[in-house]
From TrEMBL:
Organism of derivation: Pelosinus propionicus DSM 13327
One Pfam family recorded for the sequence: MarR_2
One MF annotation (Gene Ontology) recorded for this entry: DNA binding
PROSITE patterns attached to this UniProt entry: HTH_MARR_2 (PS50995)
Annotated Gene3D superfamilies: Winged helix-like DNA-binding domain superfamily/Winged helix DNA-binding domain
Keyword terms: DNA-binding, Transcription, Transcription regulation
Name of the protein described by the UniProt record: DNA-binding transcriptional regulator, MarR family
Length: 146
């Protein structure tokens, strides 16, 4: 049986990679005088795909806890990038919508993110990236089953 080495584990490497991607994207966003973070961009991105999600849905999609998502939403509301609206079918629930200012970030930030990822994946064959994503997707599915 092969000896477990923490720093060689896929979990450790994915975590470090994720942190590096996030920290460097935050640095690039700051250099561009953008006033959002990579985490906030994640929320905006899900709303660009499907506006009018609940806070619970955003927590599920981002795999973040409700407290973290609530903080992200509050900060985006302060910046007038999103807004809460009562759900017509259930007044106890608020739906989260992008404002026009939030929608306008798509082009500006998406290009920056695209350049960031191109730099991160420089020298890596696209088929290797596809395989890597496929493996990570499978790991995530396996973990969701538990």
């Amino acid at each position: 049986m092969k000896k477990y080495v923490f720093t060689q584990s896929i979990g450790f490497k994915i975590e470090v990679c994720s942190r590096l991607l996030t920290n460097r994207l935050n640095k690039k966003l700051k250099q561009q005088d953008s006033w959002i973070t990579a985490e906030q961009w994640g929320i905006i991105n899900f709303l660009l795909q499907q506006d009018g999600l609940t806070q619970n849905q955003l927590a599920q999609k981002t795999s973040k806890d409700h407290t973290c998502v609530s903080r992200l939403i509050d900060n985006l509301i302060k910046r007038d990038l999103i807004e809460r609206r009562p759900d017509e079918s259930d007044r106890r629930t608020n739906l989260i919508y992008l404002t026009e200012a939030g929608k306008s970030l798509q082009i500006e930030i998406a290009k920056l993110v695209e350049n960031h990822l191109q730099h991160a994946f420089h020298g890596i064959d696209s088929s290797d990236i596809k395989t890597c994503l496929s493996v990570i997707d499978r790991v995530m599915e396996n973990l969701k089953e538990e």
